[in-house]
Specification:
The protein has helices at residues 14-92, 97-102. With 106 residues, the protein is mainly alpha-helical.
């Protein structure tokens, strides 16, 4: 059989290895600084969005609370009456029964 020759790499110059190591170290440090800057920028952006959203929610909350309480007082009774009328309609018109069944109103 053929014996393939295993070529070993020639020993590298220590100065060249040191230069490569320093370049790699500089690259890693630069990337770490970049990651810190990007994450800080993202954190500031998210903080500003949270503040803006909190202010908007505080402005909307009283109106929404009033709307919900009005619905519970008046709207819900109207909705229940409407559903009863739909059920009555379904009793007199059998073609409408599958629609009522589909939405759980039978």
């Amino acid at each position: 059989m053929d014996n393939p020759e295993i070529k070993t790499p020639s020993p590298a110059d220590p100065g060249q290895l040191q230069a490569q190591f320093e370049d790699l170290h500089h690259l890693v440090v630069s990337l770490l600084i970049l990651v810190v800057v990007v994450s800080g920028t993202l954190s500031v952006f998210l903080l500003r969005q949270w503040r803006t959203t909190s202010k908007d929610l505080a402005a909307i909350r009283p109106g929404a609370t009033q709307f919900i309480s009005d619905y519970h007082k008046v709207g819900q009774q109207r909705m229940d009456a409407f559903l009863e009328k739909l059920k009555d309609y379904g009793r007199t018109h059998p073609d409408f029964v599958p629609i009522l069944t589909r939405y759980g109103l039978s």
